[in-house]
Amino acid sequence: MLARLRIDDLEKWKNKTRRKPLLLDGARQVGKTYLVGEIFGKKRFRKVHRLDFRLDSRLSRLFIESLDPQTILSNIELHLNAKISLRRDLIFFDEIGECQRAVDSLKYFAEELPRAYICASGSNIGLLESFPVGAVHHMELFPLCFEEFLMAKNNPLLLESFRERRNSQIVFDHLWTTLLDYYFVGGMPEAVMRWHAGTGRLSDRVNDVSQIHRGLMLGYRQDFGKYSGKIHALHIDAVFSAVPRQLASCRDESVKRFKFKGVIQRKNRYRDLRGPIDWLEKANLVRKCHPINSKPVPPLQALIRDNMFKLYFFDVGLLNHMLEIPYDLQRSQSLPFKGYIAENFVQTELAVHSDYPTYSWQKARAEIEFLHQCKDGEIIPVEVKSGSRTRAKSLTSYLDRYDPTRAVILAGMPASKKSEKVQHWPLYEAQFLNQLWGIAVDSTLSKTGLKYAQQR
Q1: In this structure, are residues 312 and 289 in contact, taking their beta carbons and an 8 Å threshold?
Q2: Residue 170 contacts by C-beta under 8 Å, 6 or more apart in sequence?
Q3: H or E stretch covering 121
Q4: Which of 5, 141, 193, 392 has a CA positioned 20 to 30 A from the CA of residue 230?
């Protein structure tokens, strides 16, 4: 059974005396049903009453007569032939986006039955015609992050070393090797489970993961037509395919902003591609990073331009699959231009552990891959280097211009201290950008990392 970090957030929701219905959003096949129904529901409740609206379209009849919660509960009990205990049972509306009336009912559950345990999930929540704003506790589930990938590896000592941010060559070697595996496998639960199954030859596991990725991509493309119409689906698919191509074209430089020209014939401007891009973002399949070309000051959101952004893929393993990068080539890191994979990895880690969207900085030829804004407003420049070569001309330019209190370089090397301001972190520690007071570059500072792990 895959362990997920989101279980802590579900526990907090359950322990509230008055609660809004929980709405778990996320791309298809990231494990929403498994998390709610198996990991959370069966262990924390007497019974899980699951209604799958994608599997059974007839369930919409339960909501036609009325949106009154008591009426709906009576209909559910009759349909399932089971009594529902509001104190001990979880009511799970799976793939709720397939039934707009069920979505609308969440508002009334929040108002009239705040003691009930109502959980809903969906992979097309962002595409709904209407949404009960303010009436639900919204939460997003992502593909497994690197920490969850480590958890699935079933190596407690390595996981402990990661969480405590131990800084030694032997720890780095093991975690770096695992990161290269993660680049290939990614975080889709089915692929992760097969990879860590521990059975079969390596070549068989590689082939199985590739087959799983192929099936996932087919499912996403089928969704384009199902939820958008035939013509619009072709445009969505064109943008979807262009994202990895444009990422891979960024040779030894930082990922550039998404170029609209050449993606769809005779459509060369943002307003021409805005619909397909917005659709993919709402379906949680692409992630935006906004470049800022002025002095970064909070709030960063106020400094962006809507038509300027980088686009990253939501899962690094599926990015690897779309670019047809063989496992051995990924492991050897002999790719001529591999920086974009490292950047996409950092983007996905930030999406899980920090706020979204993300931001970068660009001025003339100088570029900083990410700007991380702390809760107190401090803005940290973050350089990303795929290997151990860490010359950072752009970071030097940024430091000279704005004199920030500190900066971080994420690279393929163990942690070190370059200067009073600049810290080197291993790439796999990207998630700890959200815990910057715990920079573990020596044995003394690693105690903060231990405190963080204990809090988790």
Answers
A1: yes
A2: none
A3: strand 118-122
A4: 141
DSSP run (H or E) holding 190:
helix 189-195
Distance CA 29, CA 33 (A): 9
Residue 38 to residue 36: CA distance in whole angstroms: 6
Supply the DSSP symbol for 351.
H
Residue type, 168: S
Are 103 and 63 a contacting pair, CB within 8 Å? no
Task: DSSP letter for 216, please.
Answer: H
| Tally of residues, the chain | 456
Residue with tokens 């032997």, as numbered in its chain: 170
- Look at phi and psi of residue 203 and say left if phi exceeds 0, alpha if psi is from -120 to 50, else beta: alpha
Measured CA to CA, the distance from residue 384 to residue 407 in angstroms comes to: 11
Structure tokens at 426: 């291993």
pLDDT means per 10 residues, the chain with 456 residues, are 93 94 96 96 96 94 96 97 97 96 96 96 86 90 98 96 96 97 97 89 95 97 85 92 91 83 92 95 95 94 94 96 93 78 96 89 92 90 85 89 94 86 95 69 34 39
Q: Please report where in the chains the tokens 């975690």 appear, as a residue.
A: 175
Query: What is the spatial distance between Cα 291 and Cα 363, in angstroms, rounded to a whole number?
Result: 10
Domains parsed from the chain with CATH numbers: 7-140 (3.40.50.300), 146-455 (no CATH)
| DSSP symbol at 21 | P
Q: Which residues are registered as beta bridge partners of 291?
A: 360
The two three-digit tokens of residue 252, written as one number: 């030894």
CB 128 within 8 A of CB 97: yes
Q: What is the DSSP letter of 451?
A: H
Query: How far, rounded to the nearest angstrom, does the alpha carbon of residue 445 sit from its chain's CA centroid?
Result: 28
Task: Please state the pTM of the whole predicted model.
Answer: 0.91
